[in-house]
Fold each of these.
Amino acid sequence: MLDDVLRERRDSLVASWQKEVRDTYPKAGRIKFTQQSTSFNDPIGHILGRDLPVLLDLVLDGEFETPRLKEHLDPLCRLRSVQDYSPSQAIGFVYSLKKVVRESFSKSELSDATVLAELLAFESRIDKLAMYAFDIYVACREDLFELKTREAGRRSDLIIKHFGEQGKHAFDATADREGQEAPKVSNGHEGGEA
Amino acid sequence: MADKLKPEALFNVDYSPPKKGWMDTGPIDFEATRGNWNFAATPESMEYLDLPNVRKWQPYEQDWQLPDDWQRILFEGFKTRLKRFRSLKVYMDICVRCGACADKCHFYLGSGDPKNMPVLRAELMRAVYRNDFTLFGKVFGKMGGARKMDIAALKEWFYYFYQCTECRRCSVFCPYGIDTAEITMIARELMWELGLGIDWVNTPAANCFRTGNHLGIQPHGVVDSLEFAVDEAEEITGVKIDWSINRKGAEIMFIAPSADYFASPHYYTLLGYLMLFHEIGLDYTWTTYASEGGNFGLFHSHEMMKRLNSKMYMEAERLGVKWILGGECGHMWRVVHQYMGTLQEPADFLEVPKSPITGTVFENAKSTKMVHVAEFAADLIHHNKIKLDPTRNDHWITTYHDSCNPARGMGLLEEPREVIKACCNNFHEMPENTIREQTFCCGSGAGLGTEENLEMRMRGGLPRGSAVQYVKDQHDVNVLLCMCAIDKATLPAVMDFWAPGTEVAGVHEMIGNALIMTGEKHRDADLRGEEYPIVDSQAHLAAPSGEAETQEEKANA
C-alpha cells in the first residue's frame, strides 16, 4: 500500500516539505544554529516545525473532519496572508507536498500502474487540503478588511457618541481651514495617537 | 529561554549563498508591494511646516519629482549630520555585522525579508557612507561594501526605513550598543530634505504645530471633550470631579496624548486620570496649548522633535506651574528622557518634582522636571494614599505589554507592574524574552500605524501576538494592558488577528475601576459599562476591602 510506504518515509517527507516551504522565503543570509525554533525567535520555522508534520499525518489518514486540521492549517495560512505573497503563492505551500511525494519515488516505482493509481488518489487528498487552506486564507484576508473597519470605528465611535452632529461640524471646520477634504482631518486624528 | 546547541545542528547549516547580492535585488516595485508602505505626505502639511520640495506625489509613481541636484543635497545633509552627531559617525564605522540583532526585529521575524534585519537595514545607509565618506569605499567600491546613491537605492531607503518602528529591541542585543533606531531617524531626516516622507508622520506634526495636538483639535474642542469625560466620570461615580484647564498658578501641569480625548480604548484611561487626580485632591491643570504629549517630530527630524517638545515647556512657564506630570504616552517619554537634555535649554524655571501627596522627590526627573503618571501612581500606592478594590477588576485576566518607549526609552519597568498588581487580582506575565527591556513592539509605532500598510503591521505584530496567545492558552488572559497611545490604537487589530478575544486597555483604566472614591455611589459596572462580576457589589462601600482599609489606617497613622 502506498500509504504505508509514505508513513515509513514520513520523517523525510516532512523534512523535504519543510525545506520546500522554507525556500519560498528569501535566503536569510544568516547561519542558523538554533534547533529549537520558538514562536519568538523564529516564528516561521516554529510554525513549519509544529504544523507540517501534523498536516501530513492528517492527509495520510484522510482525516479532514477534525478541529486539528484548522488548528494546524490556520497559523501558516494566516501568516502567509499578510506576507509578501500573491494568493497562489501563499497557498502554494500545500501543493509543494505533491512535488515532495513524487520525488520520493523512483521512475521505475512510478511506472507501476497500482502505485500510480494510489498516488493519484493520495494527491486528491492533497487537493482537498489545498481547498481547506484556500478557505482559511480567504477568511484571513476578510479579517484584514474587517480590522480596517473596526480600527476606524474605534477612532470615531466616541466622537459620535459624545458630540454627534456638533462634533462632526467641529472637525469639518478644521478641515476647511486647511483647504482639505473632511476625511483628511480624520487622517490626522488617526496618526496623532501616542 | 536560551536555545541549546545540539551537535547535529552543525551538520544542518546551509552554506549556499543567496543567488544575488543584497545590492542587486532590483528596484522596489511599489505597485506590487501595496500593504508594505505608507502614503506620501500631502503638500498642505508639508507647506505648513516649511518643508522643501512641496508637491503631490505617491511612492507607486515612477517619478518621485525629486530636485535636480538631490544627490548633492543628500550628500551635504549626510556630511553635516556626521559632523553634528558623533554617535552617527560611530554607528556608521563600528558595526562588525555579527548578526546579533538580526532575529530580534519583529518585522524580520514576521516577514523573513533579510532587509528587515536591523543590520542589513542599517547597511543600506552604511554602504552609501562608505562610498561617499571613506577612502576604503572609494578605492574598493562595491567589493568594499560601498554603494552609490541612485534612485533604486533611495527607493530602498524609503521602503525599509519606513519599515522600522524605532522600537530599539535590536540595540538591546548589539554588543556595541548601536542604536539602530537612530540610524532610521537620520535616514528619515535626510529624506525629508528631498521632500520624501509619509503623511502619517507629517500631518500629525503639522496639526500639532497648528492646534497643539496631533488630532488637530482646536482649543474649544479639547475643553469640550474633557467636559464630556468629566460628566461621564461623575455619572459613573456620583462624585463631582474637580478639574481645571489653562489655570495659571496650578502646582502641576498634566499632559496626556491627545488620542485619550476621543479614541477607544484610550478614553477609559482618561477617565482613570480624572478620577485619580480628583480623589487625591491634586492641584493640577490641563492645557489646550500643550494638549498633546506625543511627539511625532521624533519620527520626522531633530528639528521637528525640538519644535514640538518646546511647546510643553513654554506652556509650563506661561502657566507658572512647578512641574509637569505626563500621561500614558510613548514617544513623548523617549524625547523627554533621551533627547531633550541636548535639544533644549535646561527647564530651570520649573522645580524638581515633588509629590504633594506623599512628599516623594522624583530625583530621576531633576533635569526634565517631568514625571510619568505610572511612577506617580505607584508612589501613591506604595504610600497607601489611595483605596483600591482589586475585585472590581476580577473580570479582567491581565497581562502587561511593556510599551517600547517607556520600557526601553526610560526604564519604566516595575512601576506599572506595581500599579497593576495593586488594582488587579489576575495578572500573568508573558514569556521572559518578550517583556521588559526585551519587549516586542506593537509593530505600528514611529508613524506606521496606518491602514495602507496593515499587512506589514500584522507581520510586525506577530511576535507580540504569539506571546499574548501563549498566556491566553495558559491562563485565559482576556486583556492586554499597555501604556502608550499608539499601542492602544493599534494593538486591538493585532490582537484580533493573532490572539482573538483579547481586549486592550490602559493601566489607569484599571486604577479607575478599582479606585474607591470618597462619597462614591453604588458602582455596578466598570468604566466601559461592563457589569462587575461580584455578587455583592455594595460590600466595598460599607467596608472597603481588607487590604484597602488597612492601607488607609496605616496612612492615617
Note: Strands of chain B lie at 252-255, 284-285, 323-326, 370-372, 398-400, 479-482, 503-506.
Amino acid sequence: MSLDAPRIDDPADELRARLGAGVVAEQATGEPFPVLWIAREAWVEAHRALREMERPFTLMADLWGTDETARHHRPGLPPSGVTVTSHLVSPARNADIRLKLACDGAAPRAPSLTPVYPGADWYERETFDMLGVQFEGHPLLRRIYMPNDWQGHPLRKNHHARATEKPPYRMTPESFAATEEANTLDPARLGLPTHRDGVELMVLNMGPHHPSTHGVFRILLGLDGEEIVWAYPDLGYHHRGAEKMAERQTWHGFIPYCDRIDYLGGVTHELPYLMAVESLCGIEVPERAQCIRVMLCEIFRITSHLLFYGTLAQDAGVMSPIFYMFVDRERAYDVIQAITGGRMHPAFLRIGGVAMDLPTGWDGLVRDFLDWMPRRLDDYEGMVMRSEMFRARTKGVALADAETCLKWSMTGPSLRAAGLPWDIRKERPYSGYETYEFDVVTAEAGDIYARTRVRVDEMRESLRIIRQCVDRMPGGPVKADHPRAFPPPRAQTLEDIETLIHHFVGTAWGPRVPVGEATGQIESARGLAQYSIVSDDGGHSYRTRIRTPSFANLQAIPEIAPGLTVADLVMHIASLDFVMSDVDK
Amino acid sequence: MSAAFTLILSVWLIAALLVAAGVFTWVERRGLGFLQERLGPNRVGPFGFFQWIADTVKLLFKADEVPPDGDALTFRLAPALAATPVLVGFAVVAFAPGWAISALDIGVIFILAMLALTVYAMVLGAWASRNRYAMLGGLRAAAQMLSYEAFFGLSLMGVVMLAGSMSLGQIVAAQEGLWFVVQQPLGAALFTIAGIAAAHRLPFDLQESEQDLVAGFMTEYSGMGFALFFLGEYLAILLVSALAVTLFFGGWLGPWLPAPVWFGLKVGALALAFVWIRAILPRPRYDQLVAFAWKWALPLALANLLVTGAVVVLGGSA
C-alpha cells in the first residue's frame, strides 16, 4: 500500500506535543502511517485530539484487539497482554493513523471511545466478544457475534479453534432451555422504550429469516402503526470466525476464505489480504498480474452492483429487472469462468501474482461483455431510475449525510452518495489504479436514490476501467520472480533439486512470511476493506484483522430508521448493499 | 329460466371459472417468464400447461396448519370468504345477449359489493393468524379498500349515466355505436386503477407485499387456505376484466365472431394487461397509495362525474 499524498503537518507530532508522556512509543513498521502506543489515561484524549484537530480524523475505520500472550517477536514494543488497536482515517488529509493501547492479559480493560467516535460502538462490542476486553463507559457492552451464553472469547489464544478440541457437544433439554433464555432479545432489557406518548409499541421481529434482510440479518423494530420508533440490529447469524481460521490456515491456504468474506465480491477481498502479505514479504507484483487483478475486481464490482440494483428494484416492487440483471451477471460469469475456472469464489489471486495466465481468446470475451453492458444499463435506467413511482419511493427517504456516515464509520458508495468523493482507488491507488482513467462518482442528496445513482454510474466507470485493461494488457509474467511468491514455479522442479525442495517445503508447510505488521486497503464494492496482518514468523498468521465495509455500514440503522415505515426500512437496508458474510465474517 | 336450469348453468359456470383461474395462473407465470428473459414453468405437459393442475394437487395434499395462538374457526373461514363473493359476482356478468345467470337491474352495484366483500377475508384471516406481519397486512387491506372503493364506484358512474342503466346487458347494448372508453377515457383510467386495487394486484398488493411483510395477511396460510386466497385473487382479476370489458370495451360486441368469443377474447386481453403491469411497475408506499386515492383519484372521479352529468343533462335538453 502506498499513501502518496504528502503529509503536511504530522498528526503524530501534534499528539506528542499535546499528550507529552501520553504517547508511550512509536512503533516502527513498514506501514505508510504512524503507529503510536498510547498510555491508558491518554487513550480517549488522544482520540479526541485527533477528532478535533484541524483537518480532523473523522473516520474511525477500525478498532480491534490482539492477544499478545503467545507472540514471540515483539522487539521494542511496550509489554501488553491484549492490545487494543484503533485505526483512524482523515479524508481531508488523506492520511491514516493507528493507535495502540496495551491492556492486561488476564482481565483486559480499556476506556470506551464511544463518546468521541460513536462508530466505535460495534467495534468495541466485537472486541469484547472476541477478546474479552471490558470497555469502560460503553453504553451497552454485550456480545455481538457469539451467543450470550458462550464460554470464553474466540480470538484469545487459549480458545479452541476447532470443535474437535472440545468434548462432544451434548444438548439436553436444560441446556437448550438455558440457551434459549440467554439469547432472547428483550427490548426492555436493551433499554428500548415500550411506549410512545402512552401508546404501546408493537415489537416486530424482522429476520433473520425474512425475504428482504438480504441474508441472515435480524432487526428488532418498535412500531407505532407502520412507523418505526426504534430499530435494534442483531448480528452474528452468519459468523464463521474467519479471523480465527486465518490463524490456523497457512498464509496461502487462507486465500479462498477471503472470497467468502464478501461472497458477492469474488476475488475482491483476496486483494487487500495479499497486498498486506506481499508488503511483508517485499514482493513487487508484475504489471500483467496487477492488470489482471484490476480487471477481475472491476468485473466483480459490476456483478455485485447488478445484484444490488436488481434487489433494490425488487424491494421497491419492480419485479423484472433482477431477472434481466441475472442474465447480465451470467455473461460476466462466462468471462470470469474462462479466466479463473471458477464463478463466485474463484480463489484466483496468489501471493505475488495470479494463479495462471489469461486463456487464449480472453479479450474477445471481455470485449463482448463490454459491448453488451452499456445498452442494458440504458434499459434499466428507464425501468428503474426514471420511473416516477421508483423516485417517489426513494427520493428524500432514509437520508444519511456525510457527517452521519463518517460518525458511524460508513464508507463506500453510501458515503459518496452523501457528497464526499472518497474512493481508495483514487485516494491511495493500489495495483496501478493511478494509471487508469476513471471518475469517482458522487451524489449530493444522501438518500436511497442517490445511493442507487452512485452504484449505477460506478458500473459504467468500471466498464471504462475494464476496457483500458483489455486495451493495454501488458505482457510478461503473471507471478513475481521472488522466493516468497507462492506457489513457487514448477517448471524447474524436475530439473534441479533446490527448486524441488523449495517447492516441496512450500507446498507441504506453506510459505513463511517475515515478522512484522502490514495492512492492505482497497475499495471493495461496499467500501473500505482493510486487512491488517501480524506475522510472528511461521507458516500461519498470528493475527489477521479483517475490516469489512458492510459491518460499519449497518451501524447507522438505529439512527436512520426512526420515522421511516417498514417498507422504507426495507428499501434503506437494500440501499446499503451489505452482504451478511461481510458483516459477520 | 327454470330454477333447475339456473342451477345447472351455475355449476357449469363455476367449474369453467375455476379452470379459467387455474389456466390463468399458468398464463401469468409463462407470460412473466417471457417478459423477464426466463422460461417459467415448462415441464408438466406441453409448454408446461398442466402445471396448474400439478400445483392444485400439491396444494390439496399440503397440511392446513392453524397457528397455535390463532382463532381456528375464523382462520379456516377466511379463505372461503376470499373466493366465494367473487364467484357470486360472476352471476350477473353478461357473456352474450341474454347469457347471464341473473340479469340483475343493479348488476354494476352488485359486482362492486361482491368485490368489496373480499376485504373481509383478508382482515379476518390476518386477525385470526395472530401474526404481526399478517396484522399489518390486514390493516393495510382495510385502509386500501376504504380509499379505493370510494372512487371505484364513482369512476364508472359516468358510464351508467350515459347508458342510463346499471344492468350490464343494457350497458353493453348502449355501446353499439361507440365504446364508452372513447367517451369516458378518464373514467376508464380511474376504473383500471381502482380495479387493480380491488383485485389486490401489484402495484396495489400492499396487504401481502412480500418485500416487507413476508406474505402479509396470508403469511400463516398453507395448503388449501393459501390456494383459496390465490384463487380469489385470480378470479377477481377475471371479474374486474369482465366488468371493464362490459363497461368500457363494448362487452360482447364485435364483428364476425360469435358474441361470447368476443367477450372471452377481450377479457383475456385485459387479464394479460394485468400480468404486464405486474411485470413493470414498482409498488408505492402505503401512505402514498392512500394519499393518491383521496387527493387525486377521488376529486378526478367527481369532476368526471360532474362533467358527464352536465353533458348528459344538456345533451338531453337540447
Note: The mean pLDDT of chain B is 84.
Amino acid sequence: MAINTDMAGGHAGSGSGGVLALLNDTRYRGIIAQIALIIALVALGWWLVHNTIENLRSANIASGFDFLDRRSGFEISQLPIIFSSESSYGRALLIGILNTLIVSAAGVVLATILGFLVGIGRLSTNYIIRGLSTVYVETFRNIPPLLVIMFWYFGVLAVLPRPAGAIALPFGSFLSNRGLQTPTALFQTGAWATGVALLAGIGAAVLLAWYARKRQLATGQRMKVLWPSVGLIVGLPVVVFILTGLPVEFEYPTATRFNLQGGFQIKPEFLALFLALSVYTGSFIAEIVRAGILSVSHGQTEAASAVGLRRGQILRHVVVPQAFRVIIPPLTSQYLNLTKNSSLGLAVGYPDLVAVGSTVLNQTGQSVEVVAIWMVVYLTISLTVSTFMNWFNRRVKLVER
Amino acid sequence: MEEQVSGYVADQQIPSRPAPASDRGIVHAVQKNLFATPVDSVLSIVFGAFAIWLAWSILSWAVFDATFVGGDRASCLTPEGGESEGACWAFVGAKFSQFMYGSYPIDLRWRPNLVGIVFVLLVAGFAIPKVPFKALNGWLLFAVFPVFALVLLTGAGFDVSGGFTAFLMLMAATAAYLLYGDDAGGLAAWPGRVAAIALIACFAGIVMSSLDTGTIRFAGITFTVWSLLACLSAILSVGAIALGMAQRAGVQIWRPVLPVIVATIVAVLLAEDYGLRPVSTNLWGGLMLTLIVAVTGIAASLPLGVLLALGRQSDMPAIRTVCVIFIEFWRGVPLITVLFMAAFMLPLLMPSGVTFNQLLRALVGVALFSAAYMAEVIRGGLQAIPRGQYEGAQSLGLSYWQSMRMIILPQALKLVIPGIVNTFIGLFKDTSLVYIIGLADLLGTVRRGFSDPNWITPSTAATGLVFAGFVFWLFCFGMSRYSLFVERRLDTGHKR
C-alpha cells in the first residue's frame, strides 16, 4: 500500500486514504475503468437477456434451434439443390446461403471486369471513352443500389414481352418477362475425356510456367509461355472433344403458347440483382482502379520508358504490379460490400439468406435465432473473404528490407 | 576585367511563338484525342455511335415520347389502347407531394417546409467557409435545430418522464465531466471528487427511479423522487466542475454547465404544449423521411464514432477489445439485417411495457450501424496525427481527455471531413433500405406509387424510379463535389 501511495504522486497525499490514491494513479485508474466497463457490459447483457426471456415467455414463443428440423411448408423459386415444401427450415436457410453465394460470386466477377475496363477507360486519352466512363461512374456511384435493383426488375425486366413474344437473342436464347432462357448442354458418355483433357492442360500450363520461371532465374533467358499455355488449356480439350466424336447435345428453348419450354431459365429476380450489384459495385471498383494507377508515380513510368520498355511492357511490368498493392485492400471491401448488398434481393423476391430468413422469421416468430443465423453467416463470409484477400495482399506486397 | 564576348544581350524576354500550324486547332485535337492510332479510331467510332444511340434513346424516352400531363393512367397510354413507349411524367406530377412528404397532413406541410428552410440555411452557413459566426452557427445547428425540428414536426406535447429527463442530464453531465473534469483538478481536488460522486449518485437515482415512490409534476414533466434526485445530482456535478474551474484557471466556466442546461431545456421544450396539432410519425414519409433518417443517423453516429475510435486506439486491452468487436460486428453484417434486428428484436430486448415506435427503431439501427463506419473514418484521422502532437500535449501536463479535446480531435476531425461526407453519402443511399421494414421513405413512396392501380402502365415503374434516382443522385453528387472541394482546400501536399 505504501508503494502505491508513493506512485500516486503529490496531489493525493492529503490523507484521503488508499482508494483515492489508487484512483489518482493512471495505471490503476486504467484497470479500474476496464473492470467498471466489463461489469457494466455484463450487467447490460444480463438485463437484455433477462428482458428477452421474460418477453418470449409472455408472448409464448419457443426458443432454441429446434425449428430448423421442422417442415417449412413454403416454396422457393430458385433452387440450387433439391427442396420442396416438405423440406425443413434448416434446408431452406441452406438454400438461402447458397443463393447468396451464387449471386455474390457472379456479381464479383462481372463487377471486377466492368470496374477494370471503366477504370482504365477513365484514364484514356480518348475523349469519347473517357466521357462515357465518367458518366457511368458518376451516375451509378450516386444512386442507392436498392433503387438500381428495383429499376432493373420493375422498370426493365417486368415490362419485357411475355414468353410467347420473347426477344430472340443469339445462340438460341430468349429474353422475356420470365427471365433469360438459354440452351443447356447435355453431355453424353465420353464427355468426361474432355474434362480430363482440360484439367491436364491446366496442369501442364502451370508446370510450363514454373519451368520457364526457373530457367529465367537461372539463365536470364525468357521463354514464350503465353501461346503454348493457351494451346494446352484450350487446344488440348478441343482436340480431345473432336476426337471423341463431339459428345454433347444442346437443348434449345422453344416458344409454346404460354411459356418457353426446355433449356435453362435464369430468373428475372436473379438477373435484376446480378446486373444491379455488378453495375453499382463496378462503378466503385472503377474509381479504385483509377486511383491505383494514378498512385504509381510518374517517375516510374518515365524511368521505365528510359530503360527502353514499350508501352505494353511498362503497363505489365511496372505500373500494374505497383497499382495492385494500392488496389487490393479497397477492392476487398468492395467485394464484401457486394456480398452484403446481395441481401437487397429481398426487395424483388430473390431467395437469398435474408429473404428466406425473413419468411422463416414470420412463420416461426423466432426472431432472435434467425437474426443470429444471419449475423453468423455474414460475419463468416466477411472473415473468410478478408482472410483470403489479406493473404493475397501479402503475396503482392512490396518486400522491404 | 572580363572582356564582353557576345555582342548582343537581349534586354527583354522574347515573346513565345504560337505552336506550329499542324499542332493547333480542332482538327489536331480531334486527331490526337480520337484518331491517334487505328485501334483508337475504331474505338472512337464504335463508342461514339454507342454514345449517340444512348443519348438519343434517353432523350426520346424522357422527352419526345413522354407524357407530361394527365390525371390517370389513360393519359400515359396511346389512344388506340396501345402502350406508349416514353416516360409517364404525369405520374410523378400527380404523386409529387407524396414523394416529398408522404402522408403528412396537407394543411400542416408548412411545418416540414419551415424546418427544411432553416436546415438549408444553417447547413449552408456551416459549410461555406466565408460565412462568419461559425461557432454560433454550430450551436444552432447541433443543439437548437434538432429540438426545433422535433417540436415542429411532431407537434411536441410529449409525455416526458422524469427518468428520461434525468437520463438526458446524466449524458450531458458525463460529457462535461470527461471533457472538463480535469480542468477542475480531476479526482485530486475536492470539486472533481464531488462531481464524480454526484455523477454516480445521478446514475444510481436513474436505476432506482423505476421504483414507484409518488410523483411530482414540475415544468410539465412528471418526476419521481428518485429521478428528481438524479437530476439534482447532475446539476450538482457540473456545478462542482464549474466551481473547480473557477478556483483554478477561472476561464469559460460556463462551458461545462452548458450541456446540462441544453438537456434541461430540451426536456422542458418537449413537454411543453404549443397548441400544435400532433402528427404521428407513421404519417411521415417521402424525401422528408429520407432526410430525417439520414441526418439523425449521422448526427447520432458522430459522437458515438468518436468514442469508439478513441476506444480502439486505447492502451487498455479490455476497452480496445470491446470497441474492436463492436466495430467489426456492425461492419461485417448488412444494414438490412441490422434493421430487421431493430424492428423485431429491439422490442424483445426492452422490459415489457417499453415500446418504441417504428421510426425510432429504424433510427437506433441506422445510428449503431453508421457509428461503426464513422469510427473507422475517425480512426484514420487519429492515426494521421503525428506522434509529436500526442507527446507535446502530454509534456504540457494535459490529461488524456484534455489533450483529446484541445489538441488531437480538432486536428483529426478536420482531416477527415471528406471521409465523414463520404460516409454520409453512403448512409444517405442506405436509408432507402428502411422501406423494406415498412417505412415510407422516398423510395418507399415511389414503390407504393407505381403499384397504384390508377397508374399502372408499362413505363410507370421506370419513370418513378428514374425520378427517385435523380433526386438521390442530386444529393449524393452535390455532397461528393463538396467533399472534393474540402479536400482540395485542406490539401497542402505537393502534387505533380
Note: Chain A touches chain B through 64 residues (CB under 8 Å).
Amino acid sequence: MLLSTALFMIGVIGVMVRRNIIIIFMSIELILNAVNINLIAFSAQLQNVIGQVFAIFVIAVAAAEAAVGLGIILAFYRNKETVNIDEMNVMRS
Amino acid sequence: MIVLNATLVAVTYMVLLERKVIAWAQSRLGPMRVGPYGILQPVADAVKLMIKEDITPVRADPWVFTAAPIISMVPALIVYAVIPFGPEVRLFGRQVTLYITDINVGLLYIVSVASVGVYGIILAGYASNSKYPLLASLRASAQLISYEVAVTLTLVSVIMMAGSLSMVSIVRAQQSTHLWYAFVQPVAFLIFFIGGLAETNRAPFDLPEAEQELTGGFHTEYSGMRFALFFLAEYANMIVVSSVATTLFLGGWLRPFPNVAFLGFLDVVPAWTWFLIKSFVFLYIFIWVRATLPRYRYDQLMRLGWKVLIPLAIANLVVTGIVKVLMV
Amino acid sequence: MAQAIAFYFIAACILGFAVLVISTKDTVHSVLFLVLDFLFVAALYVLLGAQFVAAIQVLVYAGGIVVLYLFVVMLVNLKRPPEAHQDPRRRTMLGFLLAAAVLVELGAIAVYGYGQPAPIVAPAAAMPVTGNTEQVGWLLYTSYLIPFEIASMLLLVAMIGAIVLAKREL
C-alpha cells in the first residue's frame, strides 16, 4: 500500500514538474503501475482473482493510451519541432 | 549452471559449424588451421576476443554502450530455464529432471523475455552515436516487433491444441495424442520457422547487419568482449528458437512417430538425445538457408511480415479454434 | 521472512528507479529506468502470486509500450533539450505544491478508511479451474466478458487513432 502510494506520488510529481512531454507520459505510466500494484496486492490479500482481471484491463488501457499519446507527440513534433509542453498553447497552427 | 555452460560451449561451436557448413556449400574447406579440421577454432576465437582492446567511441553514451550487450545476452540465456530437454532420468540413483523449472506460464515467459532482448539492439544503435548502427538498430527493432506478432499468434494456436502454457505439458500433450504438432499445425510450423529466422536476424532476413549496406549493423562500433557478447547472443537466440520449435512442434524429447508401436525399439535411445538431434537438425537448416537464399529487400521483408504471415497466422488460429470446437 | 526481505528489496528498487525516471536529464536513460522499473514491478507480481499478470506486464509494458517510447524518442531526436527553454510563467514550486495536495488527499482517504470498520469480504466464488492463468482466463471469459470486449474495441480504436495521427498526410 505504502509502496503503491509512494510510486503514485512520484508519478504525480513527474507530471507536474517536468516539461518534456515524453517524460510526462512515462510518469502517467508510473501512476497506472501504482494502481496495478494496489490491485494485485489486494487480490493476493483477499484470495480473489478479480483484482488481477482488473489489472489486465488497466494494462490494456495503458497500451491504448501510450499508442494514441505517442501519435499525438509525433504529430505535434512534426509541426513545431519541440516536445516542451509550455509551447503547446496554440490550438490552431 | 550446467545448462548455462553447455549453452555457451554450444554457441561457440555453432560458430565453427556455421563457418564449416557455409564453406562446404561454397566448396571451400573453412577453418582448418587450429586443431584437426579446425575443431579448436572456437577456443582461439574466444581467447582473441577476450584479450582484444575494448574500444568505447568518444561520442558514445558510455553507460548505455556498456549495458547494451549485456541486455541482449541475458534474455537469450535465461530463456533456457523453461525449456525441457527431457523427462525425469535416473542419474547416480537420484531423480533428476532435465529442465530447470516448469512454471505454468512457461510459453508466455519465453515470449516476454524474448521481447526484452530487443532493447539490446536498439540501445546499441543509439549509444554508438553514429549513423549506420542507428539505422541498423531501427531496422532490427521494427523487424523484431513485426515478426514477433506473427510468431506469437502461431504459439497461440499451439496453446489451443495443448490446452496449457507449460512447456512440459505441451510435450506430454503431444505424447497423449501420438502426433507431433508439426503434422497437426503445418501452417503454424512454417510461420514459426520463418518468423524465427527473422527474429534471430538470420539470412535471408539479416538486414540489420547487411554488410553491403550498413557496414556491420548495430554492432559496428563494438569491439573485443562486448562484440563477442552480441555475437554469442545471436547464436544463443538461434539455439533458443530451434529448441522452442522442437518442443512445440517436433514433440520435444519424444522419439519419432510416437504412435507407431513397432518402432518401440527406438526407446532404448535416451530421450534427451532425440531433443538434441531435432534441435541440431533445426540449426543445420538455419545455416543451410543462410548459405542458399539471397537477402530480402527491406520493403519486401515488411510486406511479407504484415501482409502474408500475420493474416495467415490469424486465419490458422481461427481454423484451429473452429476445428477444436467441432471436435469436442 | 525471506519473502519480506524480497518484498522490501523489490519495493526499494521500484521506488529508486521511479525517482530516477523522472529526474534524469537524458530522455533515453529515463526510458531505460522505466524498463527496469517495470521489470521489478513484474517481479513483485510474481511474489504476490500473480504469474500471469507478471508475464503480461513484461510482455506488454517492457516489450511493447516502452519500445514504442524509445522509438518516439529516437524519431523526435531533440535538437535542443526541452528543459533548457525557461518559461517565466512556469512555476515548478506550484507543481510540488499540487503534488503535496494530492498526497494530503490520499492520506485523508487512508485515515478515513482506517476509521471505518473493515468491510466484510465476500469469499472468492468457487471456480471450476485451478491455477493462476486458468482462473484469470475463466473470469475474463465469464463474468467480465463485456468489459473484455470493450477493452478490445478500445485497443482497436487506439490503433486506428495512432495510425491517423502519426501518418504524414492522409
Note: The CA atoms of residues 152 and 158 of chain C lie 10 Å apart.
